[in-house]
């Protein structure tokens, strides 16, 4: 039976803005308060989805969230009609309104952790929505994320869904941004690689000093238990706290893996030699041959990696067994990074080609190609069981492009977030989107 890695990309929401909400994310903070372009952001994301589909890769789409989140503001004491809640929040607590308007759900690498059926005890694909409790504006996402994923992967014979972990610091979970999977083929048993920034209960693990470590070891272990993963099918590794303090807020800012390949920076991890040996040994036991590709600090500094998002790239398997690397335009704009990539693809190694995409609107808010996609390994039967409305096709691309053109603004500032009309625009857009994607009622305004 054939198997695939399907990339479900997040559709950028109508309230895309530069709120500077993500402490520890250099791009998010440095571009705070600039004017954004939601329409351009959504169209840039759709263009990447369409391009990968045209290259022959399986591609899907994941819907954005309802914003502003008026219900979240009500829980914080703002009362009255929807318009009154927004106006009062703008007057009394603008940072809370900005947080309630965040379009950060576009970065669906943080939506959930996914384990394919070949790895799990019950032979189903397992999803655990990430609690994202390190940042308030993201912590309010998981209820809608769970409903959307449930509408996309609804067949209980093939798919299992778990609620987000307890929303406390000890179980901080950032989803697939700190998780990858190695395998010989997507339909075969693999080794799942969980990367954590700190331990909540074990003081032997060091912590960063400047920026928060968002993923805990305890959360990663809990997800592995929920998904029914075997001890032989899991490897845990700690991020280097020093690189977290340089802006590497998730592992996918400093490393990316696919198939049998790990593409990583020399300074990405602690105890790297032990980790590589464990990965090599366990991947060999499931019939694979581990291929680590280390980028030396002498060629690309951590600062280069953070500013270019070299590692926040998509590593895709091609039919001939070679790898294609999807990188943002910012990589071409960094001389050291671009020189390294030219040498890499010309070396005859497994990564043979680099394709560049303009994702400036997302990049300025701190998310590159890898942030925008949730990877789901599926066999033919499971792929057929996915809601067909969310699988990218040429007609769906045209429908979504026209939908964006109808509903999205081409400019967004902080002052625009205080406009109650924005909520009505967002709801109108999302109501139509659920019909296009055949999701049913997944948003609070559709349910209540």
How would you describe the overall organization of this protein?
Helix 16 (394-407) runs antiparallel to helix 17 (420-436). The longest helix is centred in the N-terminal third of the chain and has 17 residues, at 38-54. It contains 18 helices and 15 strands. It is α/β, with parallel strands linked by helices.
Largest sheet: 3 strands, mixed
Structural class: alpha/beta
Discrete helix count: 18
Instruction: Tell me the strand percentage band.
Output: 15-25%
Mean pLDDT, nearest integer? 95
Please supply descriptive tags for the structure shown above.
single chain, 18 helices, 35% helix, 15 strands, globular, 448 residues, alpha/beta, 3-stranded mixed β-sheet
Task: Spell out the blueprint of helices and strands.
Blueprint: E1 3-10, H1 26-30, H2 38-54, E2 59-62, H3 70-75, H4 82-92, H5 94-100, E3 112-115, E4 125-129, H6 136-139, H7 142-152, E5 159-162, E6 179-182, E7 191-196, H8 217-226, E8 234-238, H9 241-244, E9 255-258, E10 261-265, H10 272-285, E11 291-295, H11 302-308, E12 314-317, E13 323-328, H12 329-332, H13 335-345, E14 351-357, H14 360-363, E15 373-379, H15 380-385, H16 394-407, H17 420-436, H18 444-447
Parallel strand pairs: 1-2, 4-5, 7-8, 10-11, 13-14
Antiparallel strand pairs: 1-15, 3-4, 6-7, 9-10, 12-13
Helix pairs in contact: 2-16, 4-5, 16-17
């Amino acid at each position: 039976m054939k198997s695939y890695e399907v990339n479900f990309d997040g559709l950028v929401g109508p309230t895309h803005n530069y709120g500077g909400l993500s402490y520890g994310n250099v791009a998010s903070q440095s571009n705070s308060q600039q004017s954004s372009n939601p329409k351009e952001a959504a169209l840039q994301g759709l263009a990447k989805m369409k391009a990968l589909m045209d290259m022959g890769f399986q591609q899907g789409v994941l819907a954005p969230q309802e914003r502003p989140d008026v219900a979240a503001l009500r829980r914080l004491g703002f009362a009255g009609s929807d318009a009154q809640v927004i106006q009062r929040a703008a007057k009394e607590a603008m940072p809370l309104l900005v947080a309630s308007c965040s379009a950060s759900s576009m970065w669906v690498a943080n939506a959930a952790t996914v384990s394919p059926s070949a790895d799990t005890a019950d032979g189903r694909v397992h999803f655990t929505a990430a609690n994202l409790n390190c940042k308030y504006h993201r912590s309010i996402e998981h209820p809608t994320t769970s409903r959307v994923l449930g509408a996309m992967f609804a067949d209980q014979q093939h798919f299992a869904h778990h609620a987000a972990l307890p929303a406390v610091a000890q179980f901080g979970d950032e989803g697939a941004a700190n998780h990858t999977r190695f395998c010989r083929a997507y339909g075969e048993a693999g080794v799942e690689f969980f990367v954590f920034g700190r331990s909540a209960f074990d003081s032997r693990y060091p912590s960063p000093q400047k920026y928060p470590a968002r993923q805990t070891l305890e959360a990663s272990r809990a997800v592995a238990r929920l998904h029914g993963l075997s001890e032989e099918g899991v490897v845990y590794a700690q991020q280097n706290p020093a690189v977290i303090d340089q802006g590497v807020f998730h592992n996918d800012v400093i490393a990316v893996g696919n198939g049998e390949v790990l593409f990583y920076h020399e300074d990405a991890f602690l105890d790297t030699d032990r980790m590589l040996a464990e990965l090599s040994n366990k991947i060999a036991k499931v019939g694979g041959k581990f291929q680590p590709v280390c980028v030396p600090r002498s060629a690309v500094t951590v600062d280069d990696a953070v500013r270019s998002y070299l590692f926040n790239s998509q590593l895709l398997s091609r039919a001939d067994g070679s790898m294609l690397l999807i990188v943002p335009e910012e990589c071409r704009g960094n001389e050291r990074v671009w020189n390294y990539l030219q040498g890499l693809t010309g070396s005859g190694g497994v990564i043979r080609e680099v394709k560049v995409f303009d994702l400036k609107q997302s990049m300025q808010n701190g998310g590159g190609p890898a942030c925008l996609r949730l990877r789901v390994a599926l066999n033919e039967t499971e792929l057929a069981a996915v809601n067909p409305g969310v699988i990218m096709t040429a007609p769906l691309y045209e429908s979504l492009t026209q939908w964006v053109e109808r509903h999205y603004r081409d400019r967004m500032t902080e002052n625009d977030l205080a406009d109650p009309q924005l909520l009505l625009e967002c709801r109108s857009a999302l109501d139509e989107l659920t019909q296009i994607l055949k999701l049913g009622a997944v948003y609070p305004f559709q349910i209540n």
